[in-house]
Each structure stands twice: as structure tokens, then as C-alpha cells.
């Protein structure tokens, strides 16, 4: 995987326009499909709603966000209404997040968030544009990047070094079980996955998860049986090989490949 841009690729005088052209071309030329391993993905026509790329082999779609700085807690996105409509669609795109260096004309970091980590809770509605704006009343969205578990951020390039493809595909496959779950069910499972990560230990007790009971109760105020729900999600994650049952009340987070 070559990480440098071709300076002659872009006719734009603007740095941001050039960066967009360079990063899109680089993804088209060098990035493989994390879903099936196909060595090349194709670009949609410009201004296609939500998605930027697709894999001709498995038909999975991808959206690209790129910037110079490291992504913070929120990622600016498009129309709130369109984003919400796509959440439940089979062609909801996965998300590439790319950092670049314009001085060196190179990719620094690239990771992908699989679409099954996109639930309504991580999409934030922005304020409507002012009446004086060209698109007055238009409502955009933010992706709450900080609310995505680490297992949902699969690194492809880190600090200017590509991660082995086999590792990327393995980590992608590790959470594919989420894809067959409905929005509400996925939301609960992902929240428990985040709790497991927050414990910071491979082996943990059920009481470690119960420590997040108040937090989960605030997220799901209509649920009056949070502890049984936690146990249900841990059993689900155990059955899918995400965690292991060690002994009564004790679990182990399975290591990533």
C-alpha cells in the first residue's frame, strides 16, 4: 500500500479542495474492501447521497471523511434526516476516517467504522441553519465518534504504517454478529461492549459491569430490569465469541487477532 499522494492529481488551487481530490483518489487506488478483502473499491459519482465508494464484489458501501487533524469527539456529517433514514437500510455505508499531511502529501492514519456500529444514539442533530443562510432551515448531523467502542474503530493505517490486511479482516469479522441485530438490540449490545472496554481488564466480574447500572439506566429509562438485561447481553456476547465465560460471575474479553 503506497501512502503518498500524487501532486499532479489535483488541479485545484485551494488546499482543502486539493486534499479532498487527493484523498478520494488515494482511497480509490489503494484501499481494499475490509468486508470481503477485494483489493479495490470503486467511487460513486460525485454528490451521491451519503456514500462515496462501493465494493463491486460484495456491494458494501463506504463514506469517506478526511482531515489534517486527528478526529475528535464529533465528526461533522451531512443531512440529519438522510443519515437517520439510512441507518436501517441494508446499504447504510461504513465510514472511513482518514488523517493526512499536506506538507508531506501522505496519509497518516486511516481507520474504518463498520456500519453495524451506527445506531441512532451516536447521531447528533445539529441546529437548523439560520434564516439568512443559503440553505436556511437545513439540519445537519454529527457522528459522536467518542461513543463508538474501540472494537468499532478498525485501524488500516496507523502513524504512516499500514496494518497487515489479515489483521484488519480478522477484526472486521469479529463483530459481524451485530449486523443481524435490530437497531434497539444493537444499541444495548454496543453499550455493554463499551462498559467491558471501560473496565480496562481482560478478565472481569459481573459486578464490574453492574457498576455501570446507573449509566445504562439513564440511557434506557424505560427499562426497569437493567441487571438482567446486562446478563442477557453478556450471554449474547459469550455465544458470539466476543467474551468467554471463565466461572460463575467471571468473564474474559477474547483477545483480538
Description:
- The protein is of the alpha+beta class.
- The protein folds into 2 domains: 7-168, 3-Layer(aba) Sandwich (PvuII Endonuclease, Chain A), CATH 3.40.210.30; 183-253, Winged helix-like DNA-binding domain superfamily/Winged helix DNA-binding domain (Arc Repressor Mutant, subunit A), CATH 1.10.10.10.
- The protein is built from 7 helices and 13 strands.
- It has helices spanning 15-30, 80-87, 165-174, 183-199, 206-210, 213-219, 226-239; strands spanning 42-43, 53-54, 61-67, 75-79, 94-101, 106-113, 123-125, 140-143, 154-158, 161-162, 203-205, 243-247, 250-253.
- The strands form 3 sheets. A 7-stranded mixed β-sheet has the order 1-2-3-5-6-9-10.
- β9 (154-158) and β10 form a beta hairpin.
- The longest helix has 17 residues, at 183-199.
Write the layout of secondary structure elements.
Layout: H1 15-30, E1 42-43, E2 53-54, E3 61-67, E4 75-79, H2 80-87, E5 94-101, E6 106-113, E7 123-125, E8 140-143, E9 154-158, E10 161-162, H3 165-174, H4 183-199, E11 203-205, H5 206-210, H6 213-219, H7 226-239, E12 243-247, E13 250-253
Summed up:
This protein is α+β, with helices and mostly antiparallel strands and 257 residues long.
